[in-house]
From TrEMBL:
Belongs to the phospholipid scramblase family. GO terms for molecular function: phospholipid scramblase activity. The keyword Cell wall biogenesis/degradation does not apply. It comes from the Eukaryota. Transmembrane segments: none annotated. Keywords: Calcium, Lipoprotein, Palmitate. Pfam families: Scramblase (PF03803). Its cofactor is Ca(2+). This is Phospholipid scramblase. The gene is Plscr5. InterPro entries: Scramblase (IPR005552). May mediate accelerated ATP-independent bidirectional transbilayer migration of phospholipids upon binding calcium ions that results in a loss of phospholipid asymmetry in the plasma membrane.
Length: 221
């Protein structure tokens, strides 16, 4: 564990990660967009990290689901351990040369890996890459991300796309909560022995999936 990026030691023990968006009172009452804040927890509900999205009001209002952002993830001591960077890019299958790509750093300034959107006319598809941009895993979502009162699963697969090793799930948490606060609740399930850098990249993938498919939806309704 002495070779792990500082702050990621705890991920070495986890095979399940919960991401819960914090509800801002002003946003809940007036519908005014504020910077997103998240708690990242273990399967027991204990907070492991805290994440804050940084971007401008212009980006949030005019570019909402495709906006650029930097998400800073800190441990419980307040030390930034992961940085997720998303540039402003296209969100349409009609522009396959300029699809989504997200960079994850851990520690900040050191590349841990990438999330790259793959072109597909029907299914949401992404590739998880390591720091050398070598393909490691695939993420394949369902044809319809509207869960109709059910969880929505994005399967984590081996590169051959035949073997499923985990999933990223959007949890449906109820009509009132979703419609009036639009909060995000996600779960990541991966093998416990997966490289902690790739686990950090999976957290970044979760944020990207949230913005691309659930930011302006009724979250499964």
């Amino acid at each position: 564990t002495h070779n792990l990026p500082p702050g990621l030691e705890y991920l070495n023990q986890l095979d399940q990660i919960i991401i819960h968006q914090q509800v801002e009172l002003l946003e809940a009452i007036l519908g005014t967009e504020t910077s997103s804040k998240y708690e990242i927890k273990n399967h027991l509900g204990q907070r492991v990290y805290f994440a804050v999205e940084e971007n401008g009001c212009f980006d949030r209002k005019l570019c909402s689901p495709i906006r650029s952002f930097t998400i800073r993830i800190a441990d419980n001591a307040g030390r930034e351990v992961i940085r997720v960077i998303r540039p402003l890019r296209c969100n349409s299958c009609w522009f396959p040369c300029f699809l989504q790509e997200l960079e994850v750093q851990s520690p900040p300034g050191t590349i841990a890996g990438y999330v790259v959107q793959n072109w597909d006319p029907f299914l949401p598809k992404f590739t998880i890459q390591n720091q050398s941009k070598e393909d490691v895993l695939k993420i394949i979502g369902p044809y319809a991300t509207c869960g109709c009162f059910e969880d929505v699963d994005f399967e984590v697969k081996a590169l051959n796309e035949m073997t499923t090793i985990g999933k990223i799930s959007k949890y449906w948490s109820g009509f009132v909560n979703n419609v009036f606060t639009n909060t995000a609740n996600f779960g990541i399930q991966v093998p416990v022995d997966l490289d902690v850098r790739i686990k950090a990249v999976m957290i970044g993938a979760c944020f990207l999936i949230d913005l691309m498919f659930f930011e302006n939806s009724l979250d499964g309704l």
